[in-house]
Amino acid sequence: MFLNTGHLRFADVSAAVGLDLPDDGRAVALVDWDLDGDLDLWITGRTAPRLRLRRNDLAPPGSAVAFHLEGRTCNRDAIGARLSLVIGSGGDRRVRTLRAGDGYLSQSTRWVHFGLAGVPPGEPLSLEVRWPGGDRETFTAIERGKRYRVVQGSGQVQAASPQPSPSLAASEIEAPARDGTAEVHTSAPLYPMPLFSHQKDGRTLSVADHAGSPLLVNLWWSGCRPCLEELLEFTRRADDLRSAGLQVIALSVDGVGDQPGTAAGARGTLDRMEFPFPSGAATTSLLEKLETLIEYLYLDMRPFPVPTSFLVDERGLLVKIYRGKTTVDRILSDLGRDRSDPARWLDRAVPFSGRWHHRPPSVSPAVIGDQFLKDGHLDDAIRYYRSSLGHPEDADRRAKVHNNLGSILNTRGEKPDAVAAFRRSLAADPEHAPALLNLGSILREQGNPQEGLELLTRCLALRPSNARAHAEIGNCFLALGQIPDAIPPLQEAVKLDPEAHPSTFHNLGVALDSTGRPAEALPHLQKAVDLDPDYARGRAALARVLDAAHRADEAVPHYRWLVARAPKDLDAANRLAWILATSANPAVRNGPEALRLARGVCGATSNGNFHALDTLAAALAETGAFPEAANTARSAAALATSQGHGGLAAQIEARARAYAAGRPHRQ
Questions:
Q1: How far apart are CA 253 and CA 434, in angstroms?
Q2: pLDDT, tens digit, 9 for 90 and up, residues 291-340
Q3: 98-124: buried (b, 16+ CB within 10 Å) or exposed (e) per residue?
Q4: Are residues 655 and 555 in the same domain?
Q5: Is 620 contained in some domain?
Q6: How far is CA 50 from CA 178, 183, 359, in A?
Q7: For residues 27 and 43, what is the distance between their CA atoms, to the nearest angstrom?
Q8: Over the stretch 213-241, which tens digit does the pLDDT of each residue have?
Q9: Global confidence as pTM
Q10: Are 272 and 206 members of one domain?
Q11: SS3 85
Q12: Is the same domain home to 260 and 116?
């Protein structure tokens, strides 16, 4: 608080008037709460105590006058009125403006208060009001120490006696001492300790392996004296800790990020002090997860110090965080508290006594799970989502939580569990569009395109501009063999999202080619490859459509890519060999390479594929081995005839005669 000392100078008098508080304040509302003629202060803050009343007992009785305005031709509360209190015949004025809302989520009283400190008794007082809209009015016969009701247009004031406010008992708040440490209790038993691993007796264990007994996870650094003092106390009092059933794990941050030291050096430090509990090295991932957790629980975005310890109960849920050095007695005291009543957790989360005017909701585990999912910490996201499902305040989030769980499980290939999670999401909210989309897609993948189509159609009714929903509907039609019906939704998908998944462009291209529209198919197949050059299915489809469109030279680079990256695609190798052996373009032909590829395909098929034998014959002819080419072609024709392909057999026989005459085949 600043005091105007005159001559444009102000003095900070916060300490003198009891306002030097450690609160993170948000607003001050002024009101004469106890009707003693001076203004008291209601103070709101972000941090507890959220609400304080500072009663002003400094001014003597009769040292103020107050007015309550009532508009008649302007707004009824007379918001915007300007009041001038005229003191004595000299015209000294004190001016106030009536406002609505003058602080963050708060408002001072509508009584307009004029202090009269320094005004001699007996000085005449009058009030001038400029009402909203511009009307002016003067009121006389004002007495100090009184309250008046002022009605627009009445020409006179009316004495008022407002109802007294409720009497509030004063309370003493003892703030914890500031010694560089802090103990923070979680507000509810909802937050699992983030996962990490450590070594014990040559085995790698995770925090989940300690379920059933409480756990203290201690983060320390070998260059930190308080850390070493704390670890020495844990060592000296190991029997007390074990008797309480508490396991301790010390994780060093040596060498993590920019922290000096090495994990081996930290291990040596523990060996020298004969530390009796398991230990390990913290990871950047664990520190990131802990910082995320602290940020969401306490809106604290600072890196936490070392030492910092995390007390975890037998269910794996975080109980308390000790920032800075703590003591074994403090830990054992916290461990011995009754934790069966969740309502008591919130009381313990506040570092001083007080009264709740309402109990605030806990931070949703689902919100933290969302952040873990975004950061790629899938196991932790699953644990937080599952914790959220038992949280009554998260009931309206259950559809989203089940859907997110299903998405993670689907990513991991756990399809049956993913389907079950998506169905639970729809049980919680049958109109949850993401779950309709995800379940419809996975059912189509599992060979149930009809049910998938029904779900996706419902999704599209809710989200008509969802490109993925259009794409998946097209995929369902493809799976049902209804190729013409697949084309419109796939076209709409790429229209809505020109950078859609490459498979969408691939499926559209294949559908268009299958319905005799290869010229329309090619741009979509090319787009699929442009979006993902490593997309083998897209490459294969593009190469084959180019090949069928008599643009074999353009297909060659794609076939070469497939031969190098997808060696099981024997058809690609066979088509490349055919083009290299038979192209009319001498710059494309390569007999030795064609022969190598063709022999590889024939070997892989045990000479049981007449197309491969036909290609081998063409490659032999290109390299000048005409007699062998003719014999191989005859074998290919005989195999084609035996498999019921008489027309193709006749074409191969014609090529055999050409080879026998010393003529290679040209496309």
A1: 40
A2: 999 999 887 777 778 999 999 999 999 999 999 999 999 999 999 887 77
A3: beeeebeeeebbbbbbbbbeebeeeee
A4: yes
A5: yes
A6: 20, 19, 12
A7: 6
A8: 999 999 999 999 999 999 999 999 999 99
A9: 0.74
A10: yes
A11: strand
A12: no
